């Protein structure tokens, strides 16, 4: 297993199928940054504030979270791909 | 449903029709950044200050808010598009 | 009406006529950034400091303020154009 | 009159004649950033620190100050040109 | 031996073989940043917070850590290559 | 005279002759940033910390200081050239 | 002699011979930033934290330190070359 450091969160990304045109081109409907979903596998012990206090991570193992697509760092564990995020890069919990 | 994290705010963007010329071109009257409107669907628990205090988000569910166009991250929920903003990216409440 | 968030200030910009040459070209006399004037329409509740204290905005409704030209975000309200500024982007009060 | 906001300082720039070669070209002797002089016309109430304390501006009305050339924002008041600076952009007092 | 300074961590990188195509080209499956693994050889005394408190490093000698590939600074010691990281550049502990 | 503001330091730069090749080209032996020397002419009252405390400048009038070449802002006083530095841009005192 | 200011450290760089191919080209084995070694000649009095406390520099005169190659500012003293670093740019102590 992998124990995230600080406010890092280990996430198993849920791959979504992208909409393509008949001709095979992906047509984005806006210029906005898109989000992606994933399942929280492990969380770090939290972030240390400038006054020395540790703040626990707001998400829990098992949560389905949303984050900006292409964010985070990919890590391979036992042949499987995961992503590691700082908690500030997670946007919302689903459910 | 989607529970925003930290000071994030979930917004349903209100699409406005842009003014075009007879020839079909959009003619901006200034070089300024434009705002867009949306309805607040859900709010996070707030931002944690460096002294450990949590500050509640200033907007509430149901508020119509203004924000810089093309800001935020798009998220799809049950086939519908929303945007997630940090509270600092929201500019004003209408009404 | 529009209630600015945080230390935002809603301003009705006063359009000034720019000086042009006989040939129709605008000739700037320096390379410096220029200011523009506007009237304060509404102010936010202020900025929250890192120690949790809220600091009221220094300008009041009705003030004529100066700010860097092309700054702020344009917002349309009831068919009329306004600009939203962070208080730190306002430079001076006239009068 | 113009009342500068925060730690802003209103300055009347003193135009200096630049040295040119016989052929009319300006020849800088170093690659360094140059300073310019001006007279303080009005000062803001000061900067608010993160602990909520307000720190008064170090310069006074009437002071001749030095600042980096081309810095500040130009403002026109009663047909006359002034510049608005943040106090941190002022370098020294003459006299 | 090498004693890392501040919150630096000395790591012996574990080289992984990259997957290549028959034609010899490496084919990345996503645009995401990849992680790499290494073994902690030595840790610094920790980071000093703005209030003067020293916070101990979260990893220990012997830990297998993950970090963003190509991060850190390479150092040669007794003919062997190591990498020095700031603790904030370490993402997770394996095990 | 010139009274530097905040943590500014007024320095009279000591011009050094650069080594050139027989062919007249300057040949730097490394890609590193070079330092230059100067004499402290005047110092500001110091920097105000975020807690409101003023910290006196570490250098004194008459000190010979080293700083990164081409740093600072040039100021002309009574036809003579000086440079104004923030104290953090001074690297060392000679002697 | 040279007394470094703040958290600056004066270092005498130890030049290492770089490995070259038979053809004379230097062949780096990774894209990583390389470190270089040097001997500490003098240290500053330390860094002042935002709460006014001074934190002593962690390295001592005589230490052999590692730092990122090409970092620091070169200074010539009595015809000899040294480098001045901020303490945060030093990575580790050897020995």
UniProtKB/TrEMBL annotation, chains A, B, C, D, E, F, G:
Name it. Co-chaperonin GroES
> Repressor: is it a keyword of this entry?
no
What the entry lists under HAMAP family is as follows: CH10
Which function does this protein serve?
Answer: Together with the chaperonin GroEL, plays an essential role in assisting protein folding. The GroEL-GroES system forms a nano-cage that allows encapsulation of the non-native substrate proteins and provides a physical environment optimized to promote and accelerate protein folding. GroES binds to the apical surface of the GroEL ring, thereby capping the opening of the GroEL channel.
Write out the entry's keywords from A to Z: Chaperone, Cytoplasm
Under the heading CDD domains, the entry gives: cpn10
**Pfam families, A to Z:** Cpn10 (PF00166)
The protein's location, in the record's own words, is: Cytoplasm
Family matches, as Gene3D superfamilies? GroES chaperonin
Query: Which SMART domains does this UniProt record tie to the protein?
Result: Cpn10
SUPFAM superfamilies, alphabetized: GroES-like
Query: What coarse category fits the chief subcellular location reported for this protein?
Result: cytoplasm
Subunit relationships? Heptamer of 7 subunits arranged in a ring. Interacts with the chaperonin GroEL.
NCBIfam families under this entry?
PRK00364.2-2, PRK00364.2-4, PRK00364.2-5
Its family remark reads: Belongs to the GroES chaperonin family.
Task: List, in alphabetical order, the Gene Ontology terms for molecular function in this entry.
Answer: ATP binding; metal ion binding; protein folding chaperone; protein-folding chaperone binding; unfolded protein binding
Q: Which InterPro entries match?
A: Chaperonin_GroES (IPR020818), Chaperonin_GroES_sf (IPR037124), GroES-like_sf (IPR011032)
Q: Name one GO cellular component term.
A: cytoplasm
């Amino acid at each position: 297993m992998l124990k995230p450091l600080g406010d890092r969160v280990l996430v198993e990304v849920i791959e979504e199928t992208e909409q393509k045109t008949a001709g095979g081109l992906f047509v984005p409907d806006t210029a906005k940054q898109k989000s992606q979903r994933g399942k929280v596998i492990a969380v770090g012990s939290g972030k240390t504030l400038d006054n020395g206090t540790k703040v626990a991570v707001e998400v829990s193992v098992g949560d389905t979270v949303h984050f900006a697509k292409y964010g985070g760092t990919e890590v391979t564990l036992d042949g499987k791909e995961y992503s590691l995020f700082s908690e500030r890069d997670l946007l919302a919990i689903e459910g």
